[in-house]
Design brief:
Elements (H helix, E strand, L loop, with lengths): L5 H23 L9 E5 L22 E6 L13 E4 L8 E9 L4 E5 L7 E4 L3 E9 H12 L1 H23 L6
Antiparallel strand pairs: 1-2, 2-7, 3-4, 3-7, 4-5, 5-6
């Protein structure tokens, strides 16, 4: 008779997470497994949730999970019109993501606009933080659900682990309980 072993179940869960992480990283990172200078964030506004654009990043619906790459001073030279970048602003606490409309190397600034906005803004190169490399609305919704319900999910996991341990104990004691 196979006994339920919490260590084996935990190892299987960890292995499954690791195996599914590879295609996830590649999906969010343009087919690459290189995750240096990368961060996963959830977009909380709908400023980029406009009609699909003819660029690599077509749109970013609200609550999407985005993978961003930190931009160095050298990386700014590789930016192009249509890229979605994260930048610093006095109004927002975190990064704001908008699409590049124009790049002015003389003034070292970019003109940006959210896909839902009719207004542009100019940002200095020094305020650029990152470039968006991947977007996934479904995973963003799941991540947001987990973030908002973490105490309840943690309690559920603890109760499940206790129940599995109790079942394993009862089986070892020769109980007829199954």
């Amino acid at each position: 008779m196979n006994r339920l072993n919490i260590k084996n179940v935990s190892a299987l869960i960890v292995l499954t997470l690791l195996i599914t992480a590879v295609p996830f990283i590649m999906h969010m990172n343009g087919g690459s497994l290189d995750i240096t200078n990368r961060e996963l964030l959830i977009v909380v506004t709908d400023s980029m949730d406009g009609p699909p654009q003819p660029y690599d990043i077509r749109s970013i619906p609200r609550n999407s999970l985005v993978m961003v790459e930190t931009i160095s001073a050298d990386g700014i030279d590789n930016l192009k019109i249509g890229d979605v970048i994260g930048f610093r602003t006095a109004v927002a606490e975190g990064q704001v993501f908008h699409r590049i409309q124009d790049i002015d190397t003389a003034t070292k600034s970019v003109t940006l606009r959210g896909d839902q906005s009719h207004f542009s803004e100019t940002v200095d190169f020094d305020d650029i933080i990152s470039i968006v490399r991947g977007v996934d609305p479904t995973l963003g919704g799941m991540a947001l659900f987990i973030k908002l319900n973490l105490p309840y999910l943690a309690a559920l996991m603890v109760m499940t682990a206790v129940l599995l341990h109790l079942l394993d104990y009862l089986r070892k004691e020769g109980s007829d309980f199954e």
